[in-house]
Amino acid sequence: MIDFTEKRAAGPVIRLHSADNVVVARVPISIGMEVPSEGIVSRSQIPAGHKIAARDLRAGEPILKYNVCIGFAAADIQAGTYVHSHNMDFQEFDRDYAHARDYVPTPVLPESEQARFMGIVRANGQVATRNYIGVMATVNCSATVVHRIAEAFTPELMAAYPNVDGVVALSHGMGCGMEMSGEPMDLLRRTMGGYACHANFAAVLIVGLGCERNQLDALLKDQGLEAGARLKTFIMQETGGTRKTIEAGVAAVKAMLPQANEVKRVPVSARHLTVGLQCGGSDGFSSITANPALGAAMDILVRHGGTAILSETPEIYGVEHTLTSRARNREVGEKLVRRIRWWKEEYSPGRDVQINGKVSPGNQMGGLANIFEKSLGSSMKGGTTGLMEVYRYAEPVRQPGMVFMDTPGFDPVSATGQIAGGANMICFTTGRGSMFGAKPVPSIKLATNTPMYQRLTEDMDVNCGDILDGTATLQEVAQRIFEEILQVASGTRSKSELLGLGDHEFVPWNIGVVS
C-alpha cells in the first residue's frame, strides 16, 4: 500500500489499502503487462485511472477500494481483469453509522501561531477576500435590468476605483410561478439574504419587478434586511419601467463606489477563511490526488481555526458512514442521515439521477463506475477532522471546523448555497477539466492529473497530478494548496478570475413546483 503522505508514487498501479481487491492503473496498462507489486499479469487493456482486479473475485463479492465497498462483482472476475461498470453491480448495502464513535477533537493553534492573509475587515467584523458591489434580482423579470446596470461599469469606469473588484449582476430564473410559501421560497430567500449580507459585497442593490411572488418587502422582512447606505432597493413598476430603473440603478451604484473604494487590506488570521469544497468532472484519480490533497489542506485550515464546507449530498451517498462515525456527537451524525434519507426516499425515487447509481458519461470515461465510487473520492475533500455540524442549503455557517451543507451535486447550485452560507473562497477539484468561477468569491481549480493540467493550464491553479507523477507527496501538495488559498484570499487573482468567469453562476436551488 502506498502512503502518499510520506512516499511518492511509482510503478504501474496504485494500491490504496492493504485489504483492497482492486488496484488503480497509474499509467495505461496493456494486455500481458506484468504488475510485479501485485504478482499479476494484465488480461485487459486498462486506461489510466481505471481499476484492475488484484486477485480472483467471485460473483457477488464486494469490490473494495480504500477498504470501502464500491459495488459487487457481477460475475466471476479473474485477477488482472479490467473492473468497471460492465462487470460491477450497484447494490444497496447495510452501513454502520456508528455516530461519533471515531470523533477526536482537533486542537486549534493559538491565534498568535495561526497563518495570516491580507483580508478586508468590514464594520460588522466580517472578513472579506474580495470587494464587490452586487446587483440582485428578486425575480427573473428583473434579470435583464440587473445585468444592464452591472454592464454599465466598464473597466474604464472602474479604473477610478482600484480597490473595488467589480460590479456583479445576480440574476436567476425564479421568484414567480412558484409556491408563495414553504421550502422553495424559503430556499430562494435564504440564498438571496446570504448574498446580500456576504462579506465580499461592500454594498448591494436589489431590483424587483413589483408583482412577483417573491415580494421585495417580504424578502427583506424574512431575512432581517434593512435598506440603507449598504443596501438599496428599486421596484421597476414604481421607478418608471426598464430604462428609468437602469438609470436609477446605475446612479445608485455610482454613489456606492467611493465608499466601497476606501477599503484597505490588513493581516488577519486564517480562522476567518470559510472554504466551500467542490468537485466536478471527476475521474479515477480524484480520490488519489486532488480530493485527498484538498482534504489534507482543509485539515491544516481547521488547525488554524478556519472552516471547510463539504457539500454535494448525492456525492457522499454510500460513504456517509465515514462522516457520521467522526461526527462530534450523535445529533450531528443523525442530521446528516436525515438529509441522505430525504434525498433517497423523498426527492429521488424513480428518477434517473446519480444517487440512484448512475454517474455522468465523463465520470464513467474517467474511471468511476457508479455513485459509490464517486462518493468515495468526493467525501475526501473534507479531510480527516471531525464533522462539526450539518446545515441545510444556504443556512449561515457559524461553526468552525469541517462542516457539511446539504446541496445538490450540480456545482453552480451547490457553490451558490455555500457562498450564501458565508464561504469566502471556493476550492474546486477536477479530473476531466471543469471551468468554473463564482463571483463574489474567488475559485481555485485543482487538477487531478498532469496531462489535463497541461492542456488546460489557463484554467487550472494547482497541479495535484504531481502526486501521481511521483514528484511530490500528498502532504507537500496539501501545503501548496493551503498557501495558494492564503495568497488568493489576500488578493492574488485565481485563474478563473483572470478569465473573467463567475458572472452567471448565481444559481439558487430550484427545489419546488413551478406553476
UniProtKB/TrEMBL annotation:
For this chain, the family text in UniProt reads: Belongs to the UxaA family.
Pfam families in the cross-refs: GD_AH_C (PF20629), GD_AH_second (PF04295), SAF (PF08666)
Q: Which UniProt keywords apply?
A: Lyase
Which superkingdom does the taxonomy of this entry point to?
Bacteria
The record's listing under PANTHER family reads: ALTRONATE DEHYDRATASE, ALTRONATE/GALACTARATE DEHYDRATASE
Q: Could you tell me the EC number(s) of this protein?
A: 4.2.1.42
One GO molecular function term of this record is:
galactarate dehydratase activity
Q: Which GO terms describe its biological process?
A: D-galacturonate catabolic process
Domain annotation SAF: ranges: 20-89
Provide the protein name: Galactarate dehydratase (L-threo-forming)
